[in-house]
């Protein structure tokens, strides 16, 4: 489900359409004032009543709605369902030598499986503003390992997602060794600033969140010391598996660690 996010939605359709076929994509536009993305192709696009204004209420209603739609897809006969936002791209490591569809089809998923959350951001002193005519990952080299994006994105049966797909209610999570969730919402400072000042974000009361979480990622990447991602990805999975927030046992944690990583060169070839 998305609202006022055509730039990412067009790329979302292009990426996941290549992986699974556009006819297997389901997009719900949040609000009757929305228009289908220009490059929706054969994706199933539905415009629905706005799910709410204030972020907490809207997120609960949004994920309740999407949990219901996922249950319908299982009734249609799908093996698994992926839930993610328009700026989130699930990838399988090229070292696995399988496409994303092949890899997921061979996984034995009892309830859900989670990718490792990789929060890509613009390094303000090393990277230029985003050129929207070019693939994103060819222009961005740094990310924060962020447990907020180690989400229960892939489910194998009807469940109830918690807000933001961050967890599956009543179930544990399992982090796969070859899957990553690439979050691209913080890849361009200027675009983020425009969104920060948009009427939607102000009405939802999200500006404080943007300052803390979104601009915080860009600030951490721009001023932190980075390490090779391949040297810490495995350790990050272990930390997030064994440490949980005290308020949510079925969500991952990195404790106090904020690891800035240089993305592996092989990620540069991913067409997003």
Question: What's the arrangement of secondary structure elements?
Answer:
Layout: H1 6-20, E1 26-30, E2 44-48, H2 55-76, E3 81-82, E4 88-92, H3 100-106, E5 112-121, E6 142-145, E7 154-155, E8 175-186, H4 189-196, H5 199-204, H6 207-223, E9 226-228, H7 229-242, E10 260-262
Parallel strand pairs: 1-2, 5-8, 9-10
Antiparallel strand pairs: 3-7, 4-8, 5-6, 5-7, 6-10
Plain-language structure description:
This protein is of the alpha/beta class. It has one domain (79-269). It is 33% helix and 19% strand. The chain has 7 helices and 10 strands. The strands form 2 sheets. Strands 3, 4, 5, 6, 7, 8, 9 and 10 form an 8-stranded mixed sheet that branches. Helix 7 links the parallel strand 9 (226-228) and strand 10 (260-262). The two termini are 19 Å apart. The model has no long low-confidence stretch (mean pLDDT 96).
